[in-house]
Amino acid sequence: MDGEHYALSGVERERERLPPIYNSSAPAAFGRGAKQPFPSLGSFISTLSQRREAGGRGVAGGMTGTLSGTLSGTLSGTLSGTQWLRHGRELPPICSDVRQKHRLSIDTLPPEVKAPFPSDPILPPRTKTTKEFQEDMERAVQSGDWREVREFYLTTFDSFIEINAAFKREANGSFNTIDDSGVNAKFVNAVYDALLSTPQDIQKSVLKGIINSLLREWKGPRTKDDLRAYFILVQNPQYSSTSTYVIYAHLLRQIAALSEADHHFLVHWLKKLSARRFRQPVERLLQFISTRLFPAEPDELPPLAKCSWWIPSATKVLGLFNAANSVSSAPIMPFTDFYNITLEHIDFMEEYRTWQNYGNSNRFSFCQFPFILSTVVKKAIIQKDSEQQMISQARQSLVSKVSRRQRVDMNLLFLNIKVRRAQLLSDSLDELTRKRCDLKKKLRVTFVGEAGLDMGGLTKEWFLLLVRQIFHTDYVLRRPPLVISTRVSL
């Protein structure tokens, strides 16, 4: 009995170290009653602290450990606390050495368990210079042995890493600024200028390497080296041939899908190109759009329904070149060179209606990119838009009158102006000021004291007289004489 009493006292002492377990009844402890909520972590820790202070066992490191150490020391093991309750067993005592065993830092883990952070790839060393490449080309042309040149093109365009290794001025330099792309432009120009004069198998190997690069990098760029690769690939002169349009379209699609920050870098890198190198990809993009809209042969390209993303991607990339031309201190090329005359032969009013209905959403319309529309197309669109607004304003006025049960007057469909010939300018300004809400309606002019219905002739006469008076010397709106301006300049 004494031994049993001593054992029970030891158990009671161990139980005193633990927080109380709230059970409504004995069966509940064995899982045969209503389940009670397990005490929260805050109450658990506070109760445990109180118990240790009451027992005079202030363990210095007991409760000053991290949250992860406390959880590991109390709840880790084969069965959780809830499982212990379900099986009717007592929780094991919490010892300081147990807590310390579970306080593992990531520094103590074995190397194979630690997950390394992704880093920029190390570029392989490439030492070929522009002069050496040109010498290789000269030897190949003279001897007919293209093996060395073939190996260079095959290796260079095999991946984005190889492209950067070949054309980057410093292999592992960062160049993460908009002011400097880090690309050896002279070397790029030499390689591309010589490409079209190489045998067909070399040109095909370059295209095959570009396909592999694009497939490998489909998830998007991770570093500025990827942007540099896009910047170099978009200058490839091979895209002038329709046989390469499928590859070209996928390249344009990936460039168009880049983030706005990446586009910002590309725009500032593109504006650093020379006028000739800048114009060439712009002309290829315009030709790509025109050929896709009106192919020379029906079977020359895939069906338009299967590649509807070609034109939007090309137009968006062309927008990057237009932005680069705009932000340049002096325009690299005239803005009229971005016009695509082919668009004058499409249903541009349908494009306009699409733009009106969907705005700048994912539904593509050439009206989202006005830089590509010629003056003829813009004039027609503005004229049609003006007519639609006139009809809309007239309809609103008519519906307003009918809804208020007022007599409908046909004059409310027009912007009616009554002027006196002697006071033409002042009367016109007064009328336009008073009838601002009707400015989008069709114009109808009446001269006071003169009978007549304006069928267009009176409006033309009003415009002619108004322009003459506006530029009359009395109003000081006419351009100064040439003699006066010459004297001022002297």
Automatic annotation (TrEMBL):
**Could you tell me the EC number(s) of this protein?**
2.3.2.26
Show where the HECT domain sits.
435-477
Known catalysed reaction(s)? Answer: S-ubiquitinyl-[E2 ubiquitin-conjugating enzyme]-L-cysteine + [acceptor protein]-L-lysine = [E2 ubiquitin-conjugating enzyme]-L-cysteine + N(6)-ubiquitinyl-[acceptor protein]-L-lysine
Output this protein's name: HECT-type E3 ubiquitin transferase
Q: What PANTHER family does the record tag this protein with?
A: HECT-TYPE E3 UBIQUITIN TRANSFERASE, UBIQUITIN-PROTEIN LIGASE E3C
Q: Which organism is it from?
A: Gasterosteus aculeatus aculeatus (three-spined stickleback)
Note the superkingdom of the native organism.
Eukaryota
Task: Output the GO biological process annotations, alphabetical, semicolon-separated.
Answer: protein polyubiquitination
Q: Which GO terms describe its molecular function?
A: ubiquitin protein ligase activity
